[in-house]
TrEMBL record:
GO molecular function: ATP binding; DNA binding; DNA topoisomerase type II (double strand cut, ATP-hydrolyzing) activity; metal ion binding
Source species: Ephemerocybe angulata
Domain Topoisomerase 6 subunit A/Spo11 TOPRIM: from-to ranges: 308-468
Keyword Nucleus part of the UniProt annotation: yes
Bias kind Acidic residues: ranges: 1-12, 45-60, 79-109, 138-148
Pfam families noted in UniProt: TOP6A-Spo11_Toprim, TP6A_N
Cofactor(s) demanded: Mg(2+)
Compositionally biased spans, kind Polar residues: 31-44
Protein name (Swiss-Prot/TrEMBL): DNA topoisomerase (ATP-hydrolyzing)
Keywords: DNA-binding, Isomerase, Magnesium, Metal-binding, Nucleus, Topoisomerase
GO cellular component, one term: nuclear chromosome
Length: 472
């Protein structure tokens, strides 16, 4: 069904934006909440674990001077400079200083050091704990042969010492707001084998280390397909990559592992300059892929751009593009339309955040989502950030974005027939109750959710086209 936008003489896009109440007065921080969770019962804290240091044996501090074997200056057997040599010490011109060898190499990425320390810590634990054989209790050399026979039935092996790797757990927040921790231990009793989690972790570490050393980025999808039988699911890779970044307080891009972009943008008023020198120019009647943030050098925005619209669904996005809404005469100037195809990826959120920071306040940024709890949840990800990426929310959450619709309270005003509404499912009901329990969601959002729960109905964006009298 084609989507048609209602535009009449008395109502405009800007009027719709101005009519929406400002949610800022009802907000008190980000909209997600987490149950407090204590740290794992481990002798070493996360900070101590990451700052793990090793005691090295005292090394010989004598300086080794490399010389030309044909040179008269040489080293004695004791490693001391032979002062009987005819070679004169080097002379420096006035004002010249011996600064030592110059280094043209750049500082290696911070993540390389974190990866190598984590691996070294694991190997040290393996050497200290993993190679020691489990001891047996109940044996005594002084026992007689008969006593040994009796005690043989009571012998029990002590458990082998565990090797433990600590990671941040982005889904757990302590009472102080700090991230919780989770551990990967070996050995342990599990049905699928206790070595698999460690193998998955070190596979990701190895790929990230290679990507950082070579300077060639990779994607989480590529990591998964390099060993599908090991990871079992894409979610395993996603969680490990993001947990590693959170553990070291880095961005995912600092590991040189990216998420493949899925978002689209439409509108000739936007151009994107890439570090490769390529320029991506938007189109008014077709969408282009949103590049990942690490590839973007700068944005170019036409002065005629007067509005930004973020839509939940790709189908709606494609319809708006086909109808030329980004530069339609009925709209207040040029516009830019963006979709994350449902829950947005990092690249889409980065674009929306960048536009929100760069554009003047007079240019509205609006979101059009389904009239159901998942639509509002998607809006909250754009506006407040997500729990899973909370360590990057400062650079991804666009607080300026406004809720344009679709709202339960507007259905009757739009002339939408009750029979065209969809009944809410058990999953919808559960999602509504979960969102109502969040203390920081705006009250206006909660009223809409409560109304939907009371009516037991929801609506999708496409339903607007059934009442529009003015097709674009």
């Amino acid at each position: 069904m084609d989507l048609e936008l209602m535009v009449d003489d008395d109502t405009s896009f800007m009027d719709l934006m101005a009519s929406q109440e400002d949610d800022e007065e009802e907000e008190h921080g980000s909209c997600y909440t987490q149950e407090p969770s204590g740290s794992l019962n481990s002798e070493a804290s996360m900070e101590e674990y990451l700052d793990f240091d090793f005691e090295l044996e005292e090394e010989d501090t004598r300086t080794v001077v490399e010389t030309d074997p044909t040179s008269p200056m040489s080293l004695t057997n004791d490693g001391e400079l032979d002062m009987d040599s005819d070679m004169e010490p080097p002379e420096f011109e006035e004002g010249e200083e011996d600064d030592g060898p110059e280094s043209d190499t750049e500082e290696p990425p911070e993540a390389i050091g974190h990866i190598e320390r984590m691996v070294l810590n694991f190997l040290t634990q393996l050497a200290n704990k993993g190679l020691s054989a489990p001891s047996e209790s109940g044996s005594d050399d002084s026992m007689s042969e008969g006593e040994e026979a009796v005690s043989a039935t009571t012998k029990r092996k002590e458990p082998r010492p565990q090797i433990e790797v600590l990671l941040a757990d982005r889904r757990k927040l302590g009472q102080d707001g700090e991230l919780g921790t989770r551990s990967i231990k070996y050995p342990r009793r599990v049905a699928g084998g206790s070595a698999r989690p460690l193998a998955q972790l070190f596979n990701v570490l190895n790929i990230s280390h290679e990507a950082l050393v070579t300077g060639v980025p990779t994607t989480k999808r590529d990591v998964y397909y390099k060993d599908v039988s090991l990871f079992k699911s894409q979610g395993t890779v996603d969680r490990l990559v993001d947990d590693l970044a959170a553990t070291w307080e880095l961005k995912r891009s600092d590991l040189n592992i990216r998420a493949a972009s899925k978002g689209l943008v439409c509108g000739a008023g936007l151009s994107i300059e890439l570090f490769t020198g390529e320029t991506l120019t938007g189109k008014d009647t077709d969408g282009i892929n949103i590049p990942v943030g690490e590839d973007i050098e700068s944005f170019g925005i036409d002065e005629e751009v007067n509005w930004i619209l973020v839509v939940e669904k790709e189908a709606v996005f494609q319809t708006l593009c086909r109808l030329g809404v980004a530069d339609h005469p009925s709209m207040p100037g040029r516009g830019i339309i963006i979709t994350g195809k449902g829950y947005p990826d990092v690249a889409t959120r980065h674009l929306v955040k960048s536009l929100a920071d760069a554009l003047p306040k007079r240019i509205p940024i609006a979101a059009l989502v389904d009239c159901d709890p998942y639509g509002l949840d998607i809006l909250s990800v754009y506006r407040y950030g997500s729990v899973s990426m909370q360590h990057e929310n400062d650079t991804l959450a666009a607080r300026r974005i406004k809720w344009l619709g679709l709202r339960t309270s507007e259905l009757s005003e739009l002339g939408i027939d009750w029979d065209n509404l969809l009944p809410i499912s058990k999953a919808d009901e559960k999602k509504i109750l979960a969102m109502l329990a969040k203390p920081n969601i705006p009250k206006k959002w909660k009223r809409e959710l409560s109304r939907s729960l009371h009516l037991r109905r929801k609506a999708e964006i496409e339903i607007i086209s059934s009442t529009s009298e003015y097709p674009l």
